[in-house]
Amino acid sequence: MEGVLALSYTALPKRARRCLDQLSVFPSSFDLTAAEAVVADVGEVEELLELLQQRSLLEWVEASERYDLHDPVREFAAARLADADAVRLRHARHYAGIAEEADTRYDCGGEQIRAALALFDRERVHIDAGWEWARARAGREEADRLVLAYANATAHIGDLRYDTRRERVPQLQAALAAAQRRGDRRGEAMGSWNLGLAYEQLGDVARAVEAMQLRVDYEREIGHPDAERHAARVEELRQRLRDAG
After folding, report:
1. pTM as predicted
2. How far apart are CA 73 and CA 106, in angstroms?
3. 1-82 in CATH: which number?
4. Tens of pLDDT along 81-121?
């Protein structure tokens, strides 16, 4: 298989080879908009996608109107990808935007909820890949910015689609740490509150109180109108702890 792919690859124009290499960052099927957002410095992307289809290096799935790479092609192209971090950054940015779109639709309620969940589920593999790529580079400015973007972009859908203990808590912990590194007080307050809600779902009321109090302190400091409402919520949890002995 490697030899056959090498022959097909070598026969491609340089622009098409570079396009194929960059497409290897997609772990699953993708649409034209995503390809155009991720693939750079090759000219007309749609034209190159058509060429790759003709050479049987890229599949077009008519039913879903999406492109896909077979695993051997993806692995072959990935091994030849230059500037991988730059390409994966574009991928992560694009799907942070998709996650935000899905969460915004969900927040609209009504019929938009079904559309939002369908969009998130269709692109979840990419959303998760972008988030994990950013988390793996924690401490770098762009990566921390993306971690916060993904946390904000999954504020509602994330609670439905991610396992609270295995997925949601680590995600929110990473976002809180990113906000703290960036000196983002508002982001830290929001992140700590969301993390506290996750701890509450797990029955860890003590950690929930500790995390959620950070938002109360911040809101009191800036005179936010919701400060006392949130303080009352934290006090309810403290009372639960006292009642539990």
Report:
1. 0.92
2. 36
3. 1.10.10.10
4. 999 999 999 999 999 999 999 999 999 999 999 999 999 99
Amino acid at 32: L
Q: What is the rounded CA–CA span in Å between residue 211 and residue 100? A: 24
- pLDDT tens digits, one per residue of 28-50: 999 999 999 999 999 999 999 99
Distance CA 180, CA 186 (A): 10
Give the phi and the psi of residue 242 in degrees, each rounded to 5. -65, -40
Q: Closest Cα partner for 6 from 23, 20, 26, 22? A: 20
Chain position carrying tokens 């971690």: 147
Q: How far is CA 187 from CA 23, 178, 182, in A?
A: 33, 9, 9
Distance separating the N- and C-terminal Cα atoms of the chain: 66
CB neighbour class for 181 (10 Å; exposed up to 12, middle 13-18, buried from 19): middle
Q: What are the strands, taking DSSP E only, across 18-106? A: 59-61, 66-68
Task: Name residue 188's amino acid.
Answer: E
Q: The tokens 């969009």 sit on which residue?
A: 119
DSSP secondary structure code for residue 138 in this structure: T
For the chain, helix (H) and strand (E) counts, in that order, are 13, 2
Beta bridge partners of 66: 61
CA–CA dist 130, 211 (Å, integer) = 26
- 8-state DSSP, 181: H
Do 31 and 66 form a contact (C-beta atoms < 8 A)?
A: yes
What are the boundaries of each domain within the chain?
Answer: 1-82
